[in-house]
Design goal:
The protein is built from 6 helices and 6 strands, in the order E-H-H-E-H-H-E-H-H-E-E-E. The protein is α/β, with parallel strands linked by helices. Strands 3-2-1-4-6-5 form a 6-stranded mixed beta sheet. Helix 3 runs antiparallel to helix 4 and helix 5 packs across helix 6.
Length: 145
């Protein structure tokens, strides 16, 4: 079964009180990823998500709620850890495709994990990078599952 790499922006729409449509899509993506074991994330996604949940939301989550999200959602999906090889591939991706460092790190992590798709709204929808397809799950007409 192909797996999807889920970027932090998708996860954070679970907490968006202003956009019900995107929140619903994020819920479907996450439910499928957890039930079917078809989604993966990296350490970077864990860090970004925890930071936003605990400090940047209009009403930041409590430490207890943030830890619960870590245990129930982030840890079961977390597969990619930092390594020298990952950073080397990040630098090559950054140089070749002209992405900013942290975007290149997400792409390199998704490729290292063997993901078929990278679900994100922050990169070029439809672009293929060495077997990895970038998909904006919030694009009209997209079925992210």
């Amino acid at each position: 079964m192909p797996v999807d790499f889920i970027d932090s922006n998708v996860l954070l729409y679970l907490f968006d009180e202003t956009n019900g449509a995107k929140r619903e899509i994020a819920e479907r993506v996450l439910t499928s990823a957890l039930l079917e074991k078809s989604g993966i994330i990296s350490f970077q996604v864990v860090q970004e998500t925890l930071n936003v949940l605990s400090t940047k939301l209009p009403e930041p989550a409590s430490a207890e709620d943030t830890e619960r999200f870590l245990e129930k959602v982030l840890l079961p999906l977390w597969r990619v850890m930092p390594s020298a090889g990952l950073y080397r591939e990040t630098l090559r991706t950054q140089d070749r495709y002209k992405y900013h460092f942290y975007d290149a790190l997400i792409i390199a992590a998704a490729r290292e994990a063997g993901a078929a798709r990278l679900l994100t709204e922050d990169l070029q929808d439809g672009q293929k990078i060495e077997g990895l397809e970038i998909v904006n799950p919030f694009r009209a007409g997209c079925d992210p599952i």
